């Protein structure tokens, strides 16, 4: 069953499904919807959680093993399957179809994945997930959808603004929801609840963070160590949120993995670049990075990204910015 992201809360109140599949390339929505499902599952007694991440060397037999294994801590568990590339491959497709053919009520399978190609919507593995559970596709928000999202996010913090204020906020965040959420938190901390003027938003919300983060990504891909240090230091000094930087780096790593796997599967590079919206000015940068980085290198980058995420959330000691720096140089100095 396919639903829209804003329909999830109502659907969860009706009861849990055995399978949830969330896919897309908008990280904030994807993460928050997954959190909603985990919270509902915990309230329903799914106290144990197993996290597995799919990479090029992942053994899909782990899924069946976890489904059949009993936990000493709880009779019910969440199998949290993370599939950054968005596609399971041949072995993964078979494993997902087999899982859906014999779902167990004591297990809840939560799959989060990158953006799916349109052809994937017609595959047997996708149809099996759709039949047994709930499928949610998240998209970058634009136009009135973005305005509505910003208005609702402000309301969640007890904030409001007029049409001009919303228009200014929309233009500043440029569709980057992670950055938007951070800026709204900043507005709440500075002004508390109430109505915000256009001037207050103008003075607080940065308009350069997205541009500078993309400059950082280009520098990482082009192997420019000196520029990486300069941009990363500038982002931190200007108060740009660490999650915004992490989002951009992780998204680039997932994109490179997806491209690598597609090329390895026999697709032409030009077609893969077209499908992944790699246009002329970025083709050379991406090609340079693909030639330099192995699947193992990119997996290490995602693992470091998970570490930075825990540090940002206060779940692990250490400086998240130092870990972000380490991630940048993993792109540059592949080992």
Describe the structure.
The longest helix is centred in the last third of the chain and has 23 residues. This protein has 16 helices and 8 strands. It has a 6-stranded parallel β-sheet, with helices on both faces. The termini are far apart. The chain folds into 3 domains: 137 residues, P-loop containing nucleotide triphosphate hydrolases (Rossmann fold, 3-Layer(aba) Sandwich); 62 residues, Helicase, Ruva Protein, domain 3; 124 residues, Zinc Finger, Delta Prime, domain 3. It is globular, with a radius of gyration of 21 Å. Helix 3 packs parallel to helix 4, helix 10 packs across helix 12 and helix 12 packs antiparallel against helix 15. Helices cover 60% and strands 12% of the residues. Strand 4, helix 4 and strand 5 form a beta-alpha-beta unit. The model has no long low-confidence stretch (mean pLDDT 88). By secondary structure, the chain is an alpha/beta fold.
Rounded average pLDDT: 88
Architecture (CATH level 2) name of the largest domain: 3-Layer(aba) Sandwich
Tell me the CATH topology of the largest domain: Rossmann fold
- Shape by Cα distribution: globular
β content, as a range? 5-15%
Q: Which oligomeric form is depicted?
A: single chain
Q: Largest beta sheet, briefly?
A: 6 strands, parallel
State the name of the first-level CATH class of the largest domain.
Answer: Alpha Beta
**Estimated radius of gyration:** 21 Å
The end-to-end span amounts to 43 Å
Total helix count?
16
Low-confidence stretches: none
Helical proportion?
A: 55-70%
> Could you state the order of secondary-structure elements as H and E?
EHEHEHEHEHEHEHHEHHHHHHHH
Cross-sheet strand order for the largest sheet: 1-6-2-5-4-3
The secondary structure category is alpha/beta
User: How many domain modules?
Assistant: 3
CATH superfamily membership of the largest domain, which one? P-loop containing nucleotide triphosphate hydrolases
- The count of DSSP E runs of length 2 or more, i.e. the number of strands, is 8
